[in-house]
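User: quick one, fold this
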Amino acid sequence: MANETSFCHVFLSFRGETRDKFACFLYEALKSQGFVAFMDKSDIRIGDEVDLTIKEGIKNSMSAMIIFSQNYAYSTWCLDELVLILKRKKNSRYFIIPIFYEVTIYSLGNYGLALEKHRARHSDKVQKWREALVEVGNILGDHVEGLQSTFIQNVVKLFREKLAAKFPECRLPIPKPLHLQTRDKVVVYTANVTHGRFANTLIRGLLINNRNVAIEERNC
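Assistant:
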């Protein structure tokens, strides 16, 4: 079952492959700082539709952290969550922090291939998913590489700053020393710098022939 709450500071969206490697550490870090985070605790997906608990979690959250992984776009659940999150963001102070986990610039073309694979069963949704990925691609930044524990600390700090800026009337929990036990070396990407080649590659990989994009980027 997912965490059920009528309010949360942040909704965590991720594919199950990152749960034990990254998502749970991020969740615990946020929780240790007094933030209320919504994290789906179930690996079981029944049917094609996002369940009501997830929809309510997004609706009652103030922000979202989206953890993009190599196989993220192969999950119709993740893509539906992304659409709901972007819908929630419109005409509100809601904000998104995208995080790319163990995804290189060269593998972004796979997202376009994943969408094409979905076309047989979900032809009515593919364009909407593509537009959602392009939209979130426009808020991506440069990459950060280093220790996972350090990165999570920086994400929590960034989250606190953005929450304070977007919701100045919100009484934030008092910061505490953050001690993490995580797996060490990873490569992650986050929307914390300026737009650049990373975001452009994601968008191109979704709009153009994806096989050609991957080849072009490797030959740059």
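User: anything notable?
Assistant: Strands lie at 10-14, 37-39, 63-68, 95-101, 143-147, 185-190.
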